[in-house]
Every structure is written in structure tokens, then in C-alpha cells.
Known about the structure:
heterodimer, A: mainly alpha, 7 helices, globular, B: mainly alpha, 19 helices
Amino acid sequence: MFKLEEILNILSMLILISAFILVANKRVNSYIKTFRLQSMLLAAAAGTLGIYHMAAERKFDSAIIMCLLIILLKVIFIPGMLNRICKRVEYKVEKDFFINIPISIIICCGLAILVWYVISLIPDIKGAYEIMFLTNSISLVMIGLFFMISRKKAIGQIIGFLVIENGMFMAALLTTFGMPMIVEIGIFFDVLAAVLIMGVFVFRINESFDSIDIDKLRNLRG
Amino acid sequence: MYILLLMIIPLISCGLFWTTNKKNVINTINACGAASLLVVSIIVIWDVLRNEFVSPAFFNNIFYIDALSALILFVTVSVVFLASVFSIGYMNEELKRGVINIRRLKLYYSLLHVFVFTMILTVSTQNMGLMWIAVEATTLASAFLVGFYSNKKSIEAAWKYIIICSVGIAFAMLGTVMLYYSSVHSLGESAQGLNWQYLFQSSDRLQGSILRISFIFILVGFGTKVGLAPMHTWLPDAHSQAPSPISALLSGVLLNTAMYSIIRVMAIVNRNAGSNMFTGRLLMALGIISIGTAAVFILVQKDFKRILAYSSIEHMGIIALGLGMLSPLSVFGALYHVLNHAFTKSMLFLASGSIYLKYETKIINKVQGIFKIMPVTGTAFMLGLFAITGMPPFGIFSSELNIIMASFNGKKYIIAGLLLLFLALIFAGFAAQMFRMFYGRPLSKETHQGEINWPGTAVLVILLLIITVTGLYLPYPVNELINRARDIILLPAGG
């Protein structure tokens, strides 16, 4: 058998790679596909953790519920909803980014290295795996943030927000083996509500501005 | 059990709105809900004053109210009560003009009460994770309220609000995860692992370096919600585009609840480090930057609600400054400032709502002769402007004086000098921009003389009385609450 940490390490690496794929994507449809892939990997991580703990302690572990919730919400429901929004909000295929893709990838690499450097400076975080886990998840958050500011479409911003949320969740899952149950369910509920509300606003932006280009939102300044 | 009632009442009133279609019934439910909330919270606060804290023993003591939360709770429910009473007149007027229909009215009130629920949840829980969830929920509940008018500007403001605040808050979540990580590693897994009381009492066993990075994340995250510069960009838009009673709640209450979450984490980190070196420097830096940013931007605004919004950034900066210095005088000043700012700013926003209804514009140049048209509102607004810029005898003057004195006592002359300079600039900005609205005669002949409605005007007068009284004399229960809250935040003497 593999060690639990090794499997989780590989999965967290794959999740980070999926974030790089996301940055390289050009169209809104492929953003949604990549996000779905990333959530599946996250669900796999939660599932692995749950199964290992159940096998070791012979009692039910809440990570399994998390795994199911991730599959239900982030793999099936939210991507489906975003796809429906995409279909209803008619948009032309046009350039959607401020910074071109090769430079974006280099910036993201730089972000990951910076995060690794900062994390390894903290004296109380010991253990190679913990440094890796924290580096991967905080890099995911940073890349999500970068993705948000580098895209013009409202849907791109929603995806960026979801990637940040995934990063947060990964940090909680891998470093503390899950927060208390009530907190995790609350977080899920918040994310779901946030995405639904953002979806409604995408429609309203589309109605008022005839486009979902965030660049056009510049009435309020200073 | 009263703590549970605090959270159940707003949810019940939220549900009740959807059972009726009559305007008067909706207004009654709103007023009764807000009034009963006020009564119940006074009972809870009374309990806190008699005992050290209230914490019912279920769900691992997830609910916990001590003097600090009681103070914020008191501010919250009082402002909520006054703003809901004001909403009745304001929304009836909008209904009469056909800006909204009865369905939108119900949506408005139910979202308002959900918003209140989330804010009360923030201050009455001690589980840091649940606190995060509640703060995020405040954004979600108020996003539609910010975009309530559904025009181009308000949708833009709401989009900015929900995106910037949700992302900011995500960083606070990372901070909370780090806090929990440290708790699990040094104290072992425990059902209470995220409870503030538990973390606070065993703070010397947590790992300092992890707590420091956690504090940075939490300061950036909740600081976005507080509106500290440079994370403040959502604030002027959201405050200026929301309906005025909502602006009053956003500015007077929401910012304080977010600040409350920062205070909780700050207390743990300070106690762990044994000094305020780390948190103090960060808070003071952000505070001064916020005050400076506000001072500059106030000078160039054209919209009177935006000026008030920038002034909120300034006052949050002052509170952060007071907390950062962490001397008994400055913390007292900061908490006292929370109270004063909440009442003064909500009064100004409500008065600006009446002016907006009367003149149907928010542009300063198009508003003239308020004294002639609305004598009572005009007087209240004018005195409120004096109060918010720190003129005696109002509350803000006393609390700012406390903080400035504390910075001189602590030999922080540069900070004190900058603070005084920015306060003078802000006063000049307010005087140059706002005072011309009061004199002359209105530009349009359509503007009729008379106050907009009596409940709204009564609310303004009550708020004016409150801020005048708190400037001169602090009633015993409030004084006691502030003192006890200060003792919670301060490090133990000699430690």
C-alpha cells in the first residue's frame, strides 16, 4: 500500500496542475470543464482521506460526506448551472484576457515559488508533506486570484472565486484533516449561495449592459 | 435560551413577510420584529452585565456572549431598530412613487431581516469557523439589497461588493484554517478546537509563527469587509448605491461586526506573543492609510452619500488605530468610537435618504436650501456633519480625543500628528463640499416644503439626542460594558 501522505501529495500536485491548465484555457466552456476536473480531484483527495481514516480507526469519518458533497455540488451542480448560464447569456467568442497566456503561466509559476518560499520561512511548520500541502493549496488560492483579475468575463470571475474556494478547502482538508463538521457544511452552503447569487447578477449585468464584460462596468469611480 | 431567540426572531419575521400582501401588515411585522429583537437583546445584555458571560451548554458552547460581543450586539440591534422604523416611511414613499411594487417590498424586508440574522450570528458565536460563515453570509444577504434598485450603477456596485468581499473573506478562511491547524497541532484534536474561549485560554501553547501568518490572512480578509484601505474599493460604491436604511446598516453595523472578528483573533495573537508589537504595527499602519485615503478622496467627491461612505473608511481607520495602540485609554476610545460612529453615521445616512427622496438626486450641486425645505432633517443633518467631523459636544469628539491622548501618552507623536492633520483635512473637505447644500433656494420649483414623513424624522431626532448624550455622559451600563470589553482585549497587567 502507498502511504496516505504520498497519495494526497500526488493529488494536491494534480490539483495545482489543473489550476495551470485553467490559466491556459481560452474559452468559457473549457474553464468550466477544467473546474469540473479540479473538483473531481479534490473529491478524490477527500475520499482517499476518509477511506484511510475509516480503515485505521474503524469508525465513520466525516471526510466521506465531504467527498459526496463535493461531487454533488462542485462536480455536478455548479458546473451544470454555469453551463446553463453560458447558454442563456449569449456571448461572442472574443479575447477574454488582459495578459496573454504564456506570460500568465510564468506569473503563476512565480506565484507558486513565492508561496513555497514564504511557507518554508515559517519556523513552526515542520515536515516536508505539510510544507507541500500548504504550498499547493495557497498557490491554488493565489492562482485563482490571478485568474480573476486577468479575465474580463463575469463567468471567468465566478470560476476564479470557485478556484480560490477549492484552495481554501484543500488547505483545510490536507493540513487539519477537515474542520469540524458544522463548519464545513456551513462553508458549502455559503459557496453554493454565493455562486447562485453571482449567477443572478450575471443575468442582470447581461440585461443592463448587453454583455457580461466586466470591463464595461465603469460608472462608479473614485 | 434568550440567545437562541435572538437568532430565531429575525428568521420568523423573514418568513412572515411572505404570508401577506398588505402593506400595513408588512410594516407591522417589520416594526414588531425589530422591537422584540431589541427587548430580547437587552435581556441578554443584562445577563452579561450580571454574570461574566452567557454561553448555553450545547453544541460545545457554540454560542457565547461576553462584554465585547454584548457591546457590538447592543449597537447592532439599536441601529437595526431605528433603521427598520425609518424603512417604513422610506419604502412607503418609494411604493407610492411606483419605484418598487409590493413583491419587491416583501423581498426588501425579508432580506433585511436575514441580513440582521447573519450579523447577530456573527457576534453571538465563539466558533471562529461559524463566525467566518456568518460574515460571508452577511455579504450574501446584503448583495441584493445593495443592488436593490436594479439600475446600471447599483448592479455594478453589487457585483463589485459580492466579488471583492467574497474573495477577501476567502483569505480570512485561510487564516481560520491556520488557526485551527495550530490548535490541532499544539492542543490536540478537540470538539472545541475552534472556540474562541478555548483558544484564548490556551493561547500560550499555540505556535506563534503560525498565529502571526493567520492574523495577516484574517486582517486582510475581514479587513476587506471592514473597509480598511487599500481593500476598501467596494465600500463607497455599495454604500452610495444601496437604499439609505441599508447604507445606514452597512456603515453603522456591518463594518463593526467585521471589526469585531478581527478583534477576537487579535486578542489571541497578542496574548500568545505577550505584546502587541506584531498586531499593533499592522493595525496602526492600515488605520493611518485608511484615514489618509479617506481624507484625499472626500475632497473630490460629487455625491453626498459617497462622502459619507469615505468618512466610514476614515472612522474604521481610527478604530483600527486605537486598537493597534492597545493602551487602556486607546482601546476604551476605540470601543467608544464604535458606538459613536454607529449612531452618528447611521443618522447621517438616514437623513441623506430623506434628502434623496425629496430632491431625487445624490449630486451635491443639485441640492440647495435644505434648511428651507426640511427644517428638522436639515438641522439634524447639519449637526450630524459637525458630529462626524469631530466637533464637541458630540460623542465622536470625546472618543477621538481619547485616541489622540493615548497616542501622545504612548509617545507616538508621528501618528498623532498625522491623525490630527488628516482630521483637519477631512473637516475642511466636509465643510467645503457639504455645507453649501443647506442654504439658498432649491433649483427646481417642484421641490415642496415639508418633512418627508414623521416616523423617519422622529428617528433622526432620537439619534441626534443619543449622539449628544453619549458625548457628554455615558450611562452606567454602557460604560461598564465598554470597560469590561476593554479588559478582555487588553493584555493582563505585567504580562
